[in-house]
Amino acid sequence: MNTKAxxxxxxxxPDLVTKGVITEAAANNxxxxxxxxxTSDKKWFVIISCSVLGALLIGLGVILLFGHNWxxxxxxxxxxxxxxxxxxxxxxxxxVVLKRPASQALKEGTATFLSLMxxxxxxxxxxxxxxxxxxxxxxLTWMLxxxxxxxxxxxxxxxxxxxxxxxxxxxxxxxxxxxAFLFWPLLSVVIPHFxxxxxxxxxxxxxAILSLVMATGICVGAGFTLGRTFPxxxxxxxxxxxxxxxxxxxxxxxxxxxxxxxxxxxxxGVGIFILMFMFTFRFPWESISHxxxxxxxxxxxxxxxxxxxxxxxxxxxxxxxxxQFAKRQDWMRTLFGALPFLAxxxxxxxxxxxxFSMFLFNIFLLIISVYRLMTGIQSNNxxxxxxxxxxxxxxxxxxxxxxxxxxxxxxxxxxxxxxxFLATNVVILRRKGGAA
Length: 436
What we know:
Distance between the termini: 25 Å
Order of helices and strands: HHHHHHHHHHHHHHHHHHHHH
Largest sheet: none
Helix content: over 70%
Mean pLDDT: 77
Structural class: mainly alpha
Number of helices: 21
């Protein structure tokens, strides 16, 4: 149900009854059909934010207090002080689960506090007993200890901390792809909670934040774990990942009205444009010019098998989604979803002919920009029109800066594009005014 639309309808009902458009009975029937409009999402966000911020401040305050004159305390006292905040946080968490299970704010706040105290206690105990410093082991231990909170307390913030943590852990092994590849099974631990969160409250700030963290973690993790066998294969890998985000977001969130509720779709759309724009330059294609030399040394290694398997899964998933949207004749999203096909083709020929791959993506971005602009004009949608103009203007300006034209001509192009922006918006606004 579109909450904003129902709110607008409820505001209009008294005026419609007064003017005799509908009867009072019909207005009551509409209210009974749609029910009470829940507007607790913003309130929930404020309460959760305050709870989490309070937990962060308390946790940092405890750490700072313990840090003062820490070395002057005996080992036994330091051990007790190291474990005391953790025990207090655990007691608070159990109390919330037993006595306040319906309070999401308390569950988020105490779960966040407990997550921080787990890390603080591990660090303090390691320092107290001079345990050798092993940052990856510390991060992984911390993350594995807090991930149960995600399910036990149905808390989103510990899940977000976990995703950030395992991403940082993978970053320590960026030059050891086989170890870093464990990022993916580690990430999958929170996927059931992520799916549950979407099913429970698909259109809330909580779901949007978790979706954004998951998407960011996947992008970061892919950079640490994939594309090591063939130089430049990030072109195909990231094209597939971003396209999957975009098309899954369109598939899952097609019934909502506000952009912040569509993190996958928005992140994917922006990412597709950025990648398409990057591929209009020479530097991405120059990175694959010597891929055959490196491939001959690494392709036989068994450590490359996970890289190959997941890369093929990503490419196949992106192409499957592309065909699904093509069957639905959703041409705008189908055009955006064609990025992996062109990236794969550009990668195949880019090593020997970077200029051809550059030309291919210049044409591709031009077609998408013009099509989006024309679609927006036909539907009188200013948002689509402005994004189409922005994409087209970005491409034109990039090519002008690459050219040898004088600053006078370049300045005139800037002015013409600006006038085009303003004129198009004025025309569309007048159309809407006339239609109203």
